[in-house]
Amino acid sequence: MKYVSTRDPQRIEVSAATAISRGLAPDGGLYVPTSFPQFKEYLGKSYNELAHAVLMLYLTDFSEGELQEAIGSAYRHYQPVRLNGDYLELYHGATLAFKDVALQLFPHLLTASLKKTGVEKTAVIVTATSGDTGPAVLAGIADVPGIKAFVFYPNNGVSPVQRLQMTTNEGKNVHVFGIEGNFDDAQNGVKDIFADEAFKEKFSSDYLFTSANSINIGRLLPQVVYYFYSYAQLVESGRIQDGEPVNYVVPTGNFGNILAGYYAKQMGLPIGKLICATNKNDVLDEFFKTGVYNGDRDFHLTLSPSMDILISSNLERLTSGDGADLGTFASGSATDEQTLAKIQEVFRETGYVIDPHTAVAKTVADRYQLESGDKTLTLVVSTAAPHKFSETVETAIGQKLERSPEQIRGLHEKQVLHPGIANDLKSAIQEVLACS
């Protein structure tokens, strides 16, 4: 399998290892596969076996043994995905968010890619986060040899738990900075670094700049696996027959998670609708309803902060090629008031506690089914544990959450090691690297 940039009319092909090592293409585009391999053998496999089978189709310059070792190391300590009724829980990893599924595997893919491409420099990962990517990057990268990580987050745009997960990280190779702006500002700053050849050249003798955001194809591809796995679980439990369509409702900000579902459908998975759920920052909802993408609008801080995004980078992967199947998508949005009401409703009726992002998806799912009359089995993609947003959740359900998961137990007692605020991303990185 080869990869091309979304912005390259000549479609110059590179290997998977090259695409992963670079993060972004030299022209600023995102790497996409040149084709979608077809895959039908998803039944009867463990998660690790399925991950190996799917990723071997995309990472064809990796050996079977390399991928088996990487997958085994990534998921040694936890089951990445659990199907709980109509909720696809993706938050059982190190930082209680869906990003862990890919970011526990990503460092292994990156280090192997660097070796394959003959790069002997230290990889410098530069990442913007709206709240979940940052902690997951740090958990996956901390103290990994040959990698440094810089994470930039909106100082006033993450939950207290998300902030502490980042600012208390003890990895000697990680550096965390808040910025006075929103996620889009952080993401634009990161893209500017990759586009600034003069800046990167200053450090080119020792460092290679790359990304761990979902703009890196090595971050996106592992997410394709859990769509196949969840579908197989539905078949094997008798809830559907193999070949029946299933809908997925995905709380969406940067469009990576739902794009992974689109890739799975292009590979032959019987997905009916991919329903894009947004909060008040509803640029994607408007796009799928009108065909117009307009990020020039007011930015809102909401109760679902990981979705507070107006520049959805991964949408470029969908719209840049020929023949994108936009009919696969439906969409909707939810206000903060609707989010709180849905958390309360689900808890009152079932005793199940969902986080605000899942509540956005559940709100949109219920409205879609009511308005469309679509009776297809519909899974709500649950992207974070409610404990990461305890203040919001406890307000909604009117009581304290049960004991915190071990991943964040004692977090408030840990020392803050990264208190810094970066007025300029390049200056922050240059200061650290100059002292390394």
Assembly of the depicted chains: single chain
* Large-scale geometry: globular
Order of helices and strands: EHEHHEEHHEHEHEHHEHEHEHHEHHEHH
C-alpha-based Rg, rounded: 20 Å
Low-confidence segments: none
How much beta, percentage-wise?
5-15%
Distance between the termini: 37 Å
Give the proportion of residues in helices. 40-55%
Structural class: alpha/beta
How many helices does DSSP assign?
Answer: 17
Report the average pLDDT across residues. Answer: 96
**Main sheet specs:** 6 strands, mixed
Strand order of the largest sheet: 3-4-12-9-10-11
- Total number of β-strand segments? 12
What is the gist of this entry?
This protein is α/β, with parallel strands linked by helices and about 425 residues long. The protein has 17 helices and twelve strands. It is globular.
